[in-house]
Design brief:
Length: about 55
Amino acid sequence: MGNLLRIILLVIIPPVGVLFTVGLGLQFWINLVLTLFGYLPGLVHAVWVVTRRDY
């Protein structure tokens, strides 16, 4: 159930999905800036962060 919630948050607000995945670190801030530049770059980065396996 945690993964489903993370994916739903990732689609609605990408930085929140990244925050729940990796915490308040560099990837969160990168995603926040990308989302401020546009929804699509933030979404792509969030999907990449959440689906990679080495966090």
